[in-house]
Amino acid sequence: MGKRGKFITLEGGEGVGKSTLLADLRAKLRARGIAVQLAREPGGTALGEAVRALLLDPASRSMSAESELLLMFASRAQLVRELVLPTLKTGGWVLSDRYVDASYAYQGGGRLVPDARICALEEWVCAGLKPDLTLLLDLPVSTGRARIVRRGNMDRIETETDAFFERVRERYRRRAEAESGRFCVIDASLAPAQVLQASMVAVNRLIKASA
Ligand code: Z5A
Predict the structure, then answer these.
(1) pLDDT tens digits, residue range 122-143?
(2) pLDDT at position 60
(3) How many Å apart are CA 114 and CA 172, to the nearest integer?
(4) Does residue 58's CB lie within 6 angstroms of at least one atom of ligand 1?
């Protein structure tokens, strides 16, 4: 049987530069001859994109924390089975804009859903799939928000309070401390080229380990 591919996730609060980094990382990996599949959460499959539209629609303002959490996991269940596991199995690498850490940060940290609930869903839905590497782009909330505001068109979650996003950031940092072998924390206030360079240090380690 061929070698399993690697699963890299990008995490962080609003406007930290995940989409920007994702495109740059894909280019770097492809230049090294590595087949890369991009993913995003919520979304990444036809079903997941429909769920994403529901989740982010400002008109869904009455959505409960429980509904939000379950919809995030519904999208994830489909992504894992339809895209991530099949790609890894054939030796491809998957770069995903968010994965299960986002549920602990946003629904756990932000919405105060008990971790035990999220953990139970993770055990069921993720089928033991953990990222090989998680790049956490860390940025003060005010800086990320300023970038988002400049872009315009705020989605439902982006209109949350600063206190909500401070809790999200704190939760991400705590998870990174607790799993320092999997996480690499990047200073997202650096210029995009420097963010890419710092990320490539960790990615190169993964490439070496898989050679
Ligand atoms: N969510 C959740 O609650 N629970 C879950 O389990 C999951 C997700 C999976 C959708 O995610 C929402 O779902 C998200 C979390 C929640 N909540 N919100 N809000 P998303 O990933 O699609 O949305 P996002 O976090 O808001 O991503 P984003 O707005 O697209 O930001 P980004 O991808 O991190 O940044 P970007 O688009 O690359 O950059 C933003 C701007 O900054 C842009 O103008 C860039 O040109 C600029 N930029 C990028 N990098 C830099 C640097 N280094 N310096 C200066 N400017 C930069």
Answers:
(1) 999 999 999 999 999 999 999 9
(2) 92
(3) 15
(4) no
Instruction: Indicate if the pLDDT at residue 1 is higher than 90.
Output: no
Residues 6+ positions from 115 with CB-CB distance below 8 Å: 104, 108
CA–CA distances in Å: residue 140 to residues 22, 81, 99, 147, 177: 20, 34, 21, 11, 17
DSSP-assigned letters across all residues of 75-90: HHHHHIIIIIHHHHHT
Q: How far apart are CA 97 and CA 8, in angstroms?
A: 9
pLDDT, tens digit, for every residue of 165-181? 999 999 999 999 999 99
Among residues of the chain, what percentage have pLDDT more than 70?
A: 100
pTM of the model: 0.97
Q: Please say whether the beta carbons of 61 and 94 come within 8 A.
A: no
Ligand 1 atom 7 nearest Cα:
102
d(CA 161, CA 169): 13
Q: How far is the CA of 17 from the centre of ligand 1 (A)?
A: 6
